[in-house]
């Protein structure tokens, strides 16, 4: 039925909605017509249909609540957040009704949109017991608030919020990386080693993200950090950037061994990332000049324009790591891209 509705013109859909009797049996079709207009971007018509439907819903509390929820979603889509929140507040107070949780979730999304992180945390915490999948969003709200505290220099509050993020979602990669940032900032290298070990154990795909942080705080030359990286490099799953860093920071003879290890890794597991890292490192070796040096800058240039992260939900790709996808707005959906040849 819904597939057939989607093929109709706007005028036909509106006429159908006006001519169809409102009842529990036809409510879904009515709502679907309004939602179709909303998805097509005609917010004004969606609001008109749902407001008309509200006037025809009679005294049936369930029908009225469902129409109000869709009308609130129309208002949200149209940027009329104040009008939406008035409707949602009424629905949230319907304690024990499933629709109250749906309304609460819409309020959470409004707070997310407005970057009202304290309120988003409050709402998400109320939803998590019935919707455990929201733990990832809640952890990211704590991270957003921690990031705000970091910008103002309140590192103590920042670290406390990161602890909350990890409590809510102990596998939150963002919280672990931000915690690592704090530990390197205060030169607490033993704690940093522990956090990097946690990342290597629980989030192997993101291990390469430690390198920019180590560079930022000049920690690559710290003996315990170098020792940790050497241990990490023994794993077959280590990203090429770790081998490249060792080839860059070790003494000449040892560095050459790491370059050979990187080349071997690229030969066994070919990827554009591996090739780019190898050519970049090999280009610094004055004793190893070959004809490939002419093509290397081109290949490296191409590699540096390739997407580094891709959203597992909608396919969005880019070179920056976004914890919330800019396209579909899912949290923790972007993963590092390992591009095979």
UniProtKB/TrEMBL annotation:
Supply the name of the protein.
LapB rubredoxin metal binding domain-containing protein
Q: Which organism is it from?
A: Pseudomonas triclosanedens
- Keywords assigned by UniProt, alphabetized: Metal-binding
Offer one Pfam family short name for this entry: Zn_ribbon_LapB
Provide the LapB rubredoxin metal binding domain boundaries. 309-336
Read off the InterPro entries from this record.
Answer: Rubredoxin_2 (IPR041166), TPR-like_helical_dom_sf (IPR011990)
């Amino acid at each position: 039925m819904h597939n057939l509705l989607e093929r109709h013109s706007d005028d036909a859909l509106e006429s159908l909605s006006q001519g169809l009797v409102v009842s529990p049996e036809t409510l879904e079709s009515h709502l679907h017509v309004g939602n179709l207009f909303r998805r097509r971007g005609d917010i004004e018509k969606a609001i008109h249909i749902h407001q008309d439907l509200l006037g025809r819903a009679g005294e049936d509390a369930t029908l009225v609540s469902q129409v109000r929820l869709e009308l609130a979603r129309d208002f949200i889509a149209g940027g009329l957040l104040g009008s939406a929140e008035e409707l949602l507040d009424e629905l949230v107070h319907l304690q024990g009704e499933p629709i109250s949780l749906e309304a609460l979730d819409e309020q959470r999304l409004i707070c997310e949109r407005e970057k009202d992180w304290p309120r988003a945390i409050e709402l998400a915490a109320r939803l998590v017991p019935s919707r455990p999948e929201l733990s990832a969003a809640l952890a990211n709200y704590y991270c957003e608030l921690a990031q705000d505290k970091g910008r103002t220099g309140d590192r103590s509050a920042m670290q406390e919020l990161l602890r909350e993020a990890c409590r809510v979602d102990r596998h939150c990669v963002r919280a672990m990386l931000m915690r690592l940032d704090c530990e390197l900032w205060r030169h607490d290298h033993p704690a940093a080693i522990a956090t990097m070990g946690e990342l290597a154990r629980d989030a192997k795909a993101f291990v390469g993200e430690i390198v920019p942080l180590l560079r930022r705080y000049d920690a690559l030359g710290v003996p315990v950090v170098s020792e940790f990286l050497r241990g990490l490099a023994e794993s077959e799953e280590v990203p090429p950037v770790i081998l490249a860093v060792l080839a860059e920071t070790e003494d000449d003879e040892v560095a050459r061994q790491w370059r050979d290890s990187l080349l071997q890794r690229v030969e066994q597991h070919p990827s554009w990332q591996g090739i780019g890292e190898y050519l970049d490192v090999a280009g610094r070796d004055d004793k190893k000049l070959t004809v490939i040096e002419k093509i290397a800058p081109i290949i490296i240039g191409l590699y540096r324009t390739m997407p580094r992260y891709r959203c597992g939900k909608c396919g969005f790709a880019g070179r920056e790591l976004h914890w919330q996808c800019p396209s579909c707005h899912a949290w923790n959906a972007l993963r590092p891209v390992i591009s095979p040849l």
